[in-house]
């Protein structure tokens, strides 16, 4: 399984994913689930994936193939689309086709061919947008009322986001909340694991502002996790 979270704020986008893929307790692997497509100054798009690895890898490969196609148009390539809504539509259509083809081949195991994506970014002249794309190709969008989206094992990391995140949250606090959301998930679910991939896109930057891989022995992340655990214990002890 996996856990990915994307936050849409007035100041920018914060995206965080783990890298664990498992097909049983004795078959655990690491695969990148964060993908960035950039034309600096014109557009920046980031995607995170969860679910069947074959489906997500094939979907990303086809999206890249469409980008590289010399005959690409705004209807086929996410790097030529005229809006982020168009990007989400292309991604949804591609994911739906790959999902359908994979399910046809899998027969009785067709239900295992499930995958979802978070798509985020901004095009020059447009607004930052954040979408969650479902296996069937339909999608929902983050709003001011719900400025974050999650895929994968989302339940453990949701409470802190509900309590802390608003569209006015500064990027530094949003990064902290995303990392603590991931820390809660790591502690409660063995199917989510390090290393982590973090991407920050500032509003109107039209490029990645920060990209970082956080390894298992990262001292900064470990210190944040320890401080959060102590803060929770202290708060618990103070409640009458």
Number of discrete helical segments: 5
CATH class type: Alpha Beta
**Overall body shape:** globular
**Which consecutive residue ranges, at least 5 long each, have pLDDT under 50?**
none
Q: What is the percentage of strand-forming residues?
A: 25-35%
* Widest sheet, order of strands: 10-1-2-11-12
What percent of residues adopt helix (DSSP H or I)?
25-40%
Mean pLDDT: 95
- What is the tally of beta strands? 12
**How many distinct folded domains?**
1
In the CATH hierarchy, the architecture is 4-Layer Sandwich
| Span between termini | 38 Å
Q: How large is the radius of gyration?
A: 18 Å
Protein structure class: alpha+beta
Named CATH topology:
Glutamine Phosphoribosylpyrophosphate, subunit 1, domain 1
Any idea what the CATH superfamily is called? Aminohydrolase, N-terminal nucleophile (Ntn) domain
Describe the protein's architecture and organization.
35% of the residues lie in helices and 28% in strands. With 240 residues, it is α+β, with helices and mostly antiparallel strands. The protein has one domain (3-238): Glutamine Phosphoribosylpyrophosphate, subunit 1, domain 1, CATH 3.60.20.10. The strands form three sheets. A five-stranded antiparallel β-sheet has the order 10-1-2-11-12, covered by helices on one side. Helix 3 packs antiparallel against helix 4 and helix 4 (171-188) crosses helix 5 (219-238). The protein is globular, with a radius of gyration of 18 Å. The chain starts with a strand and ends with a helix.
